[in-house]
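User: I'm curious what two different proteins look like when written out as structure tokens. Can you demonstrate?

Assistant: Sure. I'll show them one after the other, since each token string lines up with its own sequence. Here's the first protein:
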Amino acid sequence: MGEPIQVVPASAALSGAFFADIGIHGLFTLSFSIPSVTNANVVMVSMTELNGNTNLPFIGDATMTVHNVAPGNGIVQVRGEVDWDSNLSTRVYFLVT
């Protein structure tokens, strides 16, 4: 699986919200590094496509699906799918409780 992808806080007001921007397509399983997470946390994940010019979220023609989420010690594993033939700029959001 390789090294975990680093995430950043989404907002100072939401201390449990994080995101990571990746370029990806097809079915994937990735690990994301969130040091405060344990296997006792509830982690919710969503994805959105990013506009290549503005880097802002938008709904394009590709469908994006989160299949499985597994929190561990400092890591969140995500299995998902971006139904497109080439890499799309994608933002993965994490809400940790």
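Here's a second, unrelated protein for contrast:
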Amino acid sequence: MANIKSAKKRIKVIDKKTALNRARKSQIKTAIRRFEEAVVAGNREEAVARFEYAQKRISQVASKGTIHKNAAARKVAKLAQKLNGMNA
């Protein structure tokens, strides 16, 4: 463990940020899972609503720097592909 006061503070700050990032990533995973469940169920109306929510959460998390903006765009594109595949 650290002996210097500033190092102790940094450890506390890092722990808080790590917990926050984990929570944000968990929210994304949950949103994606719920969207995919709606797609599998074949409920287009619910899938569209869950897609919009997932897209919003992914964008918010990317704006905070938890995930890279290109990774966020890739996730959204993959979800959009699944949503569009429901029509075919």
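A detail about the second structure: The domain at 20-86 is CATH 1.20.58.110 (Methane Monooxygenase Hydroxylase; Chain G, domain 1).
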